[in-house]
Every structure is written in structure tokens, then in C-alpha cells.
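Hi L.,

You mentioned the student needs an example of a multi-chain input paired with its predicted structure. This one should do, with 594 residues in total across all chains.
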Amino acid sequence: MNGKSFFKSTTFKCIIALLCVLLVSGIFLTIMNSLLAVTPEEKFNRAINKIYGKAVKTETISDIKSFNETSPNGSIEEAYKVKEDGNFLIKSTGYGGYDNGTVTCWVVVVVNGGAVKGIDKVIIDSNKAQSYIDRVGDKALSQFSELYEDGIVYTPSLITGATVTGTKNAICNAVNTALEFANVKCGNVASEAKKLLENIANIYGDTKVSVYGVDEKGEEKLIEETDETVKGFIETPVTSGKATVESLYKVRFNDGKNDVLHYVVSSTGVGGYPDGSGTVTCLTAFAIENGAISRIYKVTITANVGQSYIGNIEHLDKYPGADYIEGEDMNFVTSGATMSSTAINNAVNGAMRYIEANIANLGDITEDGDNNEGGEENE
Amino acid sequence: MNKYKKITLDGLIFQNPTFILVLGTCPTLGLISSAFSAMGMGLTVLVVLLLSNVIISALRKVIPNEVRIPCYIVVIATLVTFARMFLEKFVPDLYDSLGGFLALIVVNCIILGRAEAFANKHTVAEAAVDGIANGLGFTVSLTLMGIICEFFGKGSLFGLQIMDFKIGMLATPAGAFLVYGLCIAVFVYIVDGIERARRVKANKLARENMLKEAA
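Structure written out for the whole complex:
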């Protein structure tokens, strides 16, 4: 085929027709994009109008980036202080939605006297891959304000009236992240020690317990709320089975008859949703008798990455009920959240294997650990 | 019968894309739990279908047969992108409620189907009427099912709470599937009845004509 015949051929006509259609479409969309693009200001004004029904004066809150670096379940996109009422208007994105998507919400956090007092409103701004987002209506979103109490961590099971667990998980993560950010800005952040003691208190309920870690010199010490930093018996995270064991604390309390020793271990198991890469972090309390594990006392979930159905998990109470056999794994499953269940099993079994391998070195709480005031239970 | 009337009746009733041809089932099942979303999706498809039919019909003699499908897809994708931009700018609530289904209009069988089966063989005016008729057929079907599902599934209509009684399952895709099936059954029964009546009438007319001719 010579040059002249090529230009007369169907191939050439096809190429030209396709290029023309593409060119015209491209030009049309470029023009339309410049005419119809929604600017960030417009989006912000829409959100403000939805919330307040009028324009309000705001001032930007800074230091979002540093907060986002340490926030595992969500991120803050924008944050403002409303001048009229002093509330915080926070745009936050929650991870762990359906198909590992995200939901971005505007959250109005009520701030009074420099402290977080509640949630005024939650409005969905945008989403990624949440096909059934329209099922989360105003009725479901209003529950965030109704259920608010100091220290609350919202989970999908708390929010009723919308049957989309994954999407609800992302919304809960967005709201939790916004609340955490507001608390940070208000200076209400619990110290590392306070957070740990709160998590451990959740395990033991009303029972008064003493929690032991180590001090700067590596010596056993009673952990108190006022401690700025807190260190467990594991210096650096250790891989154990399909989990990473991050920290171990010794707990002592009186069960009415005797002083009881427990090890509380924080471990992160892999194998979670969607493709085995998701993780679940658990705090597992092990009862220790005669220098060995006697049983699992309790398992609680403290964090997760990408586990949309974590709110469905209902097998945690099976671990304490199961017989402990040295070297044997405990595997339980919640139907509908099988991958998250796997990650939890890995976290618990990893912690169990770590204790079995190191129990001789860990031992009991030494008398020296009881070296400061507040150790009433140990006397 | 006037050809425009025939095109209109075909699009609305006898070749209804939702109930007779069972096309566009993905947005149908995904969105009919809310009448507002269903109607919004229907109207968006109507506009995209009308414009794509007109453009494809106008270009039918220019576009070589060999590359017609890629060209149609580019045209449809452009129109859907434009529709998304328009809704995001002027109807943000609808844009949010349609979610991912809005972008999926690009692969809606009704639009590509009408482009291939009708628009590239007919005049611009006929293609426009076909686009409006099929779009209306789709919109009315979706809205009707949306009303049924929302009313019985949530006890509301277009977001307005009417009653406390509700059958939760009807607000899920499984319930939508059930309602969709029932609507198809009722619609086909009615259309069948109309066509039977039309055939009887035509046969009667033909018999009378034959008798007249014989006399």
C-alpha cells in the first residue's frame, strides 16, 4: 500500500473519525469542567448551609498534618472553629468502608469551656466505593449526637436503622477521628498511661487492679495515670506466629480470696479483610498460675485496619470459656466476619505463644515493683 | 399508525426497556429502595439517552461502520461525565444519593442498545423521539418500583415519612428483586392483554374486509 492509497483507505478514515470524536469530546469536557467545576469554597459553603442554614464566620484550625500521621482509622481533611458558638467544624475521612472504601463527613463537635461536650451534627460529604451510602439517612446520623457520652468510641453496631455495616464502619471511624482531633485541640487527650489504664479497666470492670510495666532503667514499676510515658515488658515489637506482640503488662488484683496475677498483652494479628492484609489489634488478659497460663481471662479489640465488619464480631467471649492447652491454638469464627475473626485468632494465638516461650523470664511481680505509693493491693 | 406514535408506544410500553427487555437491571436493583434516587437515575438516563441518540444519529453517515462502537462509547461516556458534572454542581443531593451508579450509566445496556439498534439507522428526529420514549419508559418504571419499595420498605414516599409499618426487606436489593419480578409479571400480563385485544380487533377488521370484498 502506498501513501496515497493509505489516505484513501478505510483504516485512515477510521483513525480520523475516532480522533475527531475524541478531540471534540475532550474539548467539550474541558469547557464544561471549567464551567461546572465545584470549588472547595463552594463545597464548604454547601456544608455550612446544610448545618447552620446560613453563612457563618470560621477560623481555620492548624496542625492537621501531624495529627493525621498518628491516626490509624481516619484522617482530618479540614478543621474550623465557628466564631459564633465556638464549636469545631471538622471534615474527616473514615477508612474501612465497604470494599475498603472511605466516607468523608462533616462533624460539628460541641465545644464548651474548652472541652468537648458532644456532637451537634454529622453530615456525609462524599464517599469512595460506597454504593449504598443513601441508606444511611438522617435518622442514623442523628444517633451520633444522641449516643454521645464522654470517651465514647462509636462502632457500627451502635448505629441502628441502616443495614450497611461497611459504610457505617467508615462513618464511625470518621466521627471517632473528628472527636479525637477535637480532644487533642482542646487539650483533653488522655496520656499514654491513662489510655492504657482505661483499656485495662475495661477488661476488669469494677475490680480494682494494679498494672505493672518497667521504668526507664528497665525496672518493674506500678503504672499510674499521671505517668507521661508508659513502657511494658517488651522493648520492641516481636513477631509471634501470625501476629506482632507489641507490649505486655503484668496485672495484680485480689479476687476476694487471693492475689491473682495476670499478663495483659497487646498484639496485632494479620489475615484480616479484604485480602489477608488487614489487621486487628487485641488486648488479651491471661490468668497466670504456678508459672504457667491457666486460661484466657478476656479479649478486647483496641484497633483495626480495614475491617469493615469488625462490629459484627461476637465470639470474643468464647476465648475465656475455652480450655487452655499449651501449644494449641484457639480458633473461633463469627459468621459474616470470617477474615476479621482470623486476624483476631492470630492476635490471640500470637500473644499466647509469646507468653509460653518467655514465661520463665517474665515471672511474677517482684517486690521491688511494688516500690511506690498506690500499690495498696500488693501489700 | 403514525411512525412517531409507534416509536413512542414501543419505548414506553411494548418494548419497555425495564419490564419487557429487562435492560439496565443494575441501577434498577440498586436504587429502587428510594423513589427520589430512582426518579433521579431515570431522568439522568433519559437526558443521556436523548442526547446520545441525537448525536449518534447525526453522525451515523460520518462514522465508519468498523469503529462505530468505540465512537458510541466515547460519546456516551462524554455525556455521562457531563451529566455527573451538572448534577454535582446543581443537584448535589441527587449526585450524592446516586453514588457509583451515576458513572455506571456509561455501561447501561439501554443507551448503547438504542444507539446500536435504533439511532444509527434512523433520522435525528426519530432517534430523539426514541430516546425520550425509552428514557421515559425507564424513568416511569424505576419511579414506580421506587415508590412501591420505599413505601412498603421504609414507610415513606420521596423521603417523607408516612407510616410506621414497614417490611425492611423491601428496602434491600433482595426485596427490590422481588418487586422487580412482580412488576414484570403484572406489566407483561397487561401488555399481553392489550396486544391480544389489538390482534382480535385487527382480525375482526380483516374478516369484515374479506366479507365486504366477497360480497
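You could point out the following to them. DSSP finds nine helices and twelve strands in chain A. The CA atoms of residues 155 and 377 of chain A lie 34 Å apart.

Best wishes,
N.
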